[in-house]
Amino acid sequence: MAELLRTSPLQAWTDTFARLPDPVGITAEPFVATVDVRLGTVGPEASAALGVDLPTAPNTWVPAGTGRAVWLGPDEWLLTSSTETPEEFEARVRAAVLPLGGSATDVSAQRIGLRLTGARVRDVLATGCSIDLHPRVFGRGSSAQTTLGQAGVVLLALSDAADDFLVLVRSSFAGYLADWLLDAALEFTTTPTHDR
Amino acid sequence: MQLIACPWCGPREEVEFSYGGQAHVPYPDSPAELSDEEWAHYVFFRDNPKGRFAERWNHSAGCRRWFNAIRDTATYRFERVYRLDDPKPVTP
């Protein structure tokens, strides 16, 4: 019987990403535990129980321990943790929000992260995304749920210079988005990298 | 492409939204006493004005929240966007 191996949905693109020049760097982020939180009212109790002030301003994210807390809606957040297993993380967050009438669901397998770094990644993103990504309006701490190419993504700004973005995309769309990004980055690469 | 102002996320492209039909259609007070004809009117019959129309929209590719909008069906211009718990704005 064939052995089942855990692989990243972007395993096949790793070498192609590695050949990209610095201004349009793309890397697949390591797997992180992710939990979707629904909570009606956010207050000091929620902050104390979760250990993080959930962002209430639309289109923002804040660092939360070893991960991030991303605003997804007026009563919905995405929490990530890079140190806990999905099971541990879900149990901890659920224990924190359940007494407050909230819910927590492990969605670790839903999304995968693509890290875009470099001076030209804003131009790459701009070819398929209508959000204004200028650092004046989309600095560190900004997020947006929108479409990139034809794929729905969560876009996080990790720097104030618009040269560091994290794109969270559904695992099943990751291959499509990787191909799309390589195609969009083509005009900013001097050597042919699109040999897949 | 036309931009629609989501009450939560701000202006976004039209393709991120999906249409939800006429807004402010009240659920019948006593559903058990409705005749078939009255049910049909509740379920299927909608206004079809030329001009301002209160509609439900969903920001399906963004925050996935429903909201209401006053849209002019002749010009496709969004005149007002408001949350579901806000009352229907009085338009001149």
Q: How many β-strands of chain B, per DSSP? A: 6
**Biggest β-sheet strands, sense, barrel of chain B:** 4 strands, antiparallel
CATH homolog superfamily of the largest domain in chain A: Probable tRNA modification gtpase trme, domain 1
Low-confidence stretches of chain B: none
Give the class of chain A from helix and strand content and strand pairing: alpha+beta
Under CATH at level 1, the class of chain B stands as Alpha Beta
Query: What is the CATH superfamily classification of chain B?
Result: Folate-binding superfamily
Judging by the overall fold, what is the CATH architecture of the largest domain in chain A? 2-Layer Sandwich
Which outline of chain B best applies? Answer: globular
Mean pLDDT of chain B: 93
* Secondary structure tally: strands of chain A: 10
Compressed to H and E, one letter per element, the order of chain A equals: HEEHEEEHEEHEEEH
User: What's the order of the H and E elements of chain B?
Assistant: EEEHEEE
- From the N-terminal CA to the C-terminal CA of chain A, the straight-line distance is 30 Å
CATH topology of the largest domain in chain A: Gyrase A, domain 2
Strand content of chain A: 25-35%
Radius of gyration of chain B: 15 Å
Number of domains of chain A: 2
Pfam families (chain B): SoxD
Protein name (chain B): Sarcosine oxidase subunit delta
GO biological process, one term (chain B): tetrahydrofolate metabolic process
InterPro entries (chain B): SoxD, SoxD_sf
Describe the overall structure.
The complex is a heterodimer of chains A (196) and B (92). Chain A is of the alpha+beta class and 196 residues long. Chain A contains 5 helices and 10 strands. Chain A folds into 2 domains: 98 residues, Probable tRNA modification gtpase trme, domain 1 (Gyrase A, domain 2, 2-Layer Sandwich), CATH 3.30.1360.120; 74 residues, 2-Layer Sandwich (Alpha-Beta Plaits). The longest helix of chain A has 15 residues. Chain B is 10% helix and 36% strand. A 4-stranded antiparallel sheet of chain B has the order 3-4-5-6, with no helix packed on it. Chain B has a two-stranded antiparallel sheet with strand order 1-2. In chain B, strand 5 and strand 6 form a beta hairpin. The longest helix of chain B has 9 residues. The two termini of chain B are 28 Å apart. At the A-B interface, strand 8 of A face strand 2 of B.
